[in-house]
Amino acid sequence: MKKNSKILFIGGTGIISSACSELAIARGMDLYHLNRGKSVGIRKIEGAKTIIADIRNLEDAQKALGEEEFDAVVDWISFEPHHIRNAVQLFAGKTKQYVFISSASIYQTPPEKLPITEATPLDNPFWEYSRNKIACENLLREEFRKSGFPCTIVRPSHTYDKTLLPITGGYTALKRMKNGLPVVVHGDGTSIWTLTHHRDFAVGLIGLLGNPATINEAFHITSEEWLSWNTIYKILAAEMGVEPNLVHVPSAVIARYDKEIGDGLLGDKTHSMIFDNAKIKGFVPEFNCRIPFRQGAKEIVKWYTENQQAQNFDKRIDSLMDVIIRDYS
């Protein structure tokens, strides 16, 4: 994407989009955020212009955008087909590229073979979130066939920053490990997982903007560091100077205690996921993840140590872990 290109992020201050915003600005792009102006918080982006509107209110968004046109629009917050229908109404004829942020959880679950490529079937019977993302992609493909709507699809996997603890229970599990208490780990902890630092992801995403060859194409953008869940927990524990007490419980058992946690496990984290990044590297040769999770874990533990307001110890999750461990043991 050329310097001074006009880019719109719908959202822009989230875990992944904040790093992409910072890189876009660093590369001289003219970046706009369309959001409600209520979620700046810890990820204030210097240099982005904000258009205040509720994207869920089509009339409000149309009024706020006026006659503005963009070289690329990146939609971080569409999750259901009706969100896509609104986006098509808003941006048809007003952008050269509409980038839909989908999810790598839409791939066949469990996968028949690894590594995952963009040609892997899209089929997740366990998680409604993923099925809705598939429906969004299908609608965009249909719009491209009908009208040439210039869509590019991006599928992040588990992407994190210093604020996101990628383990079941989040800060509650981290605090339990620090205090020497057992934590629940799904399965036997040996399935392989892929964690991607948001600054690494940003290189791939920004590199796709403005390339007409990406239209009607899909890309996942992930790290190639593959870690077992046991290792992920141990890296976080080591950063706190403790040895973790991991209690392994089948995902299906955990799901019986908490549906929301269970859906995320059965529909995503239970199965080993390794991704082939040949396609994104072919389009964006500079994409090469450089931040290992050991460095990411340092950032996470340091941030939570220094930000007491983020230390949200969830008593329900704490009790839930105790109950699951007691019952399963």
Task: Write up what this structure looks like.
- The protein has 329 residues and is an alpha/beta fold.
- The protein folds into 2 domains: 6-159 and 195-221, Rossmann fold (3-Layer(aba) Sandwich); 163-194 and 228-274 and 291-328, Alpha-Beta Complex (UDP-galactose 4-epimerase, domain 1).
- It is built from 12 helices and 12 strands.
- The chain has helices spanning 15-26, 58-65, 81-91, 128-147, 171-178, 198-208, 229-239, 251-257, 259-269, 278-283, 293-306, 315-328, and strands at residues 6-10, 30-35, 49-52, 72-75, 98-101, 151-156, 158-160, 183-186, 192-197, 218-221, 226-228, 246-249.
- The strands form 3 sheets. It has a 7-stranded parallel sheet with strand order 3-2-1-4-5-6-10, sandwiched between helices.
- Strand 5 (98-101), helix 4 and strand 6 (151-156) form a beta-alpha-beta unit.
- Helix 8 (251-257) runs antiparallel to helix 9 (259-269).
- It is globular.
- The N and C termini lie far apart (56 Å).
- The mean pLDDT is 95.
Characterize this entry briefly.
This protein is an alpha/beta fold. Helix content is 40%, strand content 16%.
Q: How would a crystallographer describe the biggest sheet?
A: 7 strands, parallel
Annotated CATH homologous superfamily of the largest domain = NAD(P)-binding Rossmann-like Domain
Strand content: 15-25%
Proportion of helical residues: 40-55%
Question: Using only CA atoms, what is the Rg?
Answer: 20 Å
Total domains: 2
Shape: globular
Summed up, the helix count is 12
Reading side by side through the largest sheet, how are the strands ordered?
Answer: 3-2-1-4-5-6-10
Provide mean pLDDT, rounded.
Answer: 95
Unreliable spans: none
Query: What's the CATH class of the largest domain, please?
Result: Alpha Beta
Judging by the overall fold, what is the CATH architecture of the largest domain? 3-Layer(aba) Sandwich
